[in-house]
Amino acid sequence: MKNLTSLLGSKKFMVFVSYLGVYLLASGTSWALFSYIKEPNEIVDVSEGRNRIDPNLPKTEECPINGKMYSKPEREIWETRRPITAVIENHADSRPQSGLSNADVIYEVVAEGGITRFLSVFYCGVSVDDIKVAPIRSARVYLVDWAAGYGKKPIFVHIGGANNICGNCPGGVKPVGQVAREADAFRFLESMSWRSAKGNAFDGGTNIGYPIIVRDQYRLDEKSAWEHSVVGLTDKIFKEAENRGFSYEDVKGEAWNKNFTSWKFNDDSPLSTPKATQISFEFWSNKSDYDVSWKYEKEGNRYLRFNGGKEHVDHETNLQLFAKNVVVIFVKERGPVDKEGHMFYTTTGEGEALIFQNGDVVQAVWRKRTQDDQLRFFDSKGVEITLVRGETWIEAIPVGNKVDYN
User: Fold this and answer.
1) Each residue of 245-283: pLDDT tens digit?
2) If DSSP codes are grouped into helix, strand and coil, which group holds residue 228?
3) Which residue in 124, 132, 50 sits closest to 81, CA to CA?
4) CATH for 265-405?
5) Positions in the chain short of pLDDT 50
6) What are the residue ranges of CATH 3.50.90.10 in the chain?
7) Which fold, 2-243?
8) In the prediction, which pLDDT does 42 show?
9) What whole-number distance in Å separates Cα of residue 245 and Cα of residue 238?
């Protein structure tokens, strides 16, 4: 047993496992063996190191991502990093998720079959604590498009993605049409120079693993399905990004936010008599587990989230998720575009939007000129709309869907 323990912990063995993991994915084989090496009893307790900064310090520093105010020590931390953009699943069996309450911005859209998925942006909200983020899931091209709006090469965390790799097919690729070219996330990431051994795309299936990305089938106490078990730890993700040359500046000394322009922000200004206190919509019909509603709470000037008719909470805090801004954008939906049921959503150009804030609703236009451009919102006169400082959710629903509010 002692010799076995020594072997498993040796550098040579870990190098072998790393190469084995890459081979298995390249051949289309499940990476189960690769990620099974470390199980939940070896996951680092993320509570270690919390409360590093006095929470009573003056909040004088504006977060560039969502405008929320923080202390100077918190700003000093985030100015050593670049944003994490993590793909988090929302399958009903994967709830409640971990870490969503610490995200600065969250995008929600259908992955396949009416099941939604999140792109969660972590930057200022994870300055103080090492946050458990889960369950991480596979990439989609439209999620990559939104991530690209967060400066030069944000940290993109995922586990696999729509791709044409196939271990049992001639030539190692799937038949033509199995995965549409426009839905091939691996090809898309490679074309952007994000996907490589040491790239800014952190793929738990190929180029990142323990102790940064791990498996924990007991995150929800009862054993969950294998596909719902991938967990990331933000401090370790930031550290690995630094090791790869993706901290606040890259290896050439260029800051991640050189060409990034923040949204415009303002302080709370709630209506004395709210006009929009209940918001509800569906992504797909007959998929009630993924229907969303938001309830306005005047006391906190915020919207509380419900998913599938239930309070949507963060597993780590057991507190209900909320947003200062709920932005509904209407996007063109096409698909399924291939035999695997992948969807395609238009993320560049412009379209209609509804912005809920301060108990009010604003008719708006969303606009994203290029892939690298940040998604922005304008009124009927072309003036950019100011968002309330704080947590912001972007709900991308198909054009033609109805949003009820009163």
Assistant:
1) 999 999 999 999 999 999 999 999 999 999 999 999 999
2) helix
3) 124
4) 3.50.90.10
5) 1-2, 4-50
6) 265-405
7) YerB-like fold (3.50.90)
8) 42
9) 11
